[in-house]
């Protein structure tokens, strides 16, 4: 990878605490971006494990059974994601509270996804922090836990507590964490892989960068990979001058607009090489290159192998 991504961050361990009735959608949205970040970066940035309170199998709301890697009392790591979803009101008892409180001392961060905020709140782990929950439960949550500042946002990060409102918001949250911890360009690449290119918004909605002009430029780049826009036109359509765009992208992403654009085009090329049988020349055209030789040179410089050699081992 290029030097505009963070290269010295240690591997982070995300453990997902599953309860019967958990949402497959929420689980996939939380974990798949981590897998993609490892794949795109070529590094083991994240490790993840599935745990339950007692190590027994958990069954999702749609019947998917997950055999956990272990029991919660035996684990520790960077972040614990608490994921009960349906039936959360029936998850009661001192045993649950005791395990969650103990886990808070073994994990750097505690995150509640979907209705997980209810369990953390009941354990006293959200006192005096801002928090959210699935919006269908927002009013009852606020009434049940008046000591918590309840807000209607997609996700909230307050100190070492994270709360998230639902399955789609889980994707937004994890994308934010990847950008924060590994560099915004990797988050952009993961977003591109999942074809998620949302308009900029507030912290309550996933946004690629802190700069609306950079966000617009990135959206334009993604929409125009086959016929790349000249930098001057890109800047004009993004609503700023070329010089301003260059400065803003350098400030946000630590590199030039040309480097970002090239990387996005080559990411598409890699995806097409691996996932399709299109001729290399066709792949080159679809990624904005006039001929296969030019793309092959850029591809090898970026990924350390040629498109054909990558296809032969895929």
UniProtKB/TrEMBL annotation:
GO terms for molecular function: DNA-binding transcription factor activity; sequence-specific DNA binding. Gene3D superfamilies: 3.40.50.880, Homeodomain-like. Keywords: Transcription, Transcription regulation. The keyword Transferase does not apply. Residues 215-313 form the HTH araC/xylS-type domain. InterPro entries: Class_I_gatase-like, Homeodomain-like_sf, HTH_AraC, INH-QAR. SMART domains: HTH_ARAC. The keyword Cytoplasm does not apply. This is HTH-type transcriptional regulator CdhR. It comes from Roseovarius albus. The lineage of its organism: Bacteria, Pseudomonadati, Pseudomonadota, Alphaproteobacteria, Rhodobacterales. The gene is cdhR_15.
């Amino acid at each position: 990878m290029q030097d505009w991504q963070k290269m010295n961050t240690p591997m982070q361990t995300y453990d997902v605490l599953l309860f019967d009735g958990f949402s497959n959608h929420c689980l996939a949205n939380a974990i798949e971006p981590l897998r993609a970040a490892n794949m795109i970066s070529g590094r083991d940035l994240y490790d993840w494990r599935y745990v339950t309170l007692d190590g027994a199998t958990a069954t999702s709301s749609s019947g998917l059974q997950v055999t956990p890697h272990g029991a919660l009392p035996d684990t520790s790591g960077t972040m614990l994601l608490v994921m009960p979803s349906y039936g959360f009101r029936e998850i009661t008892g001192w045993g649950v509270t005791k395990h969650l409180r103990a886990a808070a001392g073994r994990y750097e961060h505690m995150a509640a996804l979907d209705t997980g905020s209810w369990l953390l709140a009941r354990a006293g782990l959200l006192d005096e922090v801002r928090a959210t929950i699935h919006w269908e439960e927002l009013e009852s949550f606020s009434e049940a836990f008046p000591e918590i500042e309840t807000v209607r946002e997609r996700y909230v990060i307050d100190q070492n507590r994270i709360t998230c409102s639902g399955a789609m918001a889980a994707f937004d949250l994890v994308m934010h964490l990847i950008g924060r911890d590994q560099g915004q360009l990797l988050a952009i690449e993961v977003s591109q892989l999942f074809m998620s290119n949302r308009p900029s918004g507030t912290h309550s909605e996933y946004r690629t960068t802190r700069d609306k002009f950079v966000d617009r430029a990135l959206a334009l780049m993604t929409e125009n990979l086959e016929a790349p826009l000249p930098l001057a036109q890109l800047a004009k359509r993004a609503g700023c001058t070329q010089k301003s765009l260059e400065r803003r992208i350098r400030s946000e992403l630590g590199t030039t607009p040309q480097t970002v654009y090239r990387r996005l085009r080559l990411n598409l090329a890699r995806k097409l090489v691996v996932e399709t049988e299109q001729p290399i020349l066709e792949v080159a055209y679809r990624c904005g290159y006039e001929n296969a030789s030019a793309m092959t040179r850029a591809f090898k410089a970026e990924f350390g192998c040629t498109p054909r050699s990558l296809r032969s081992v895929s």
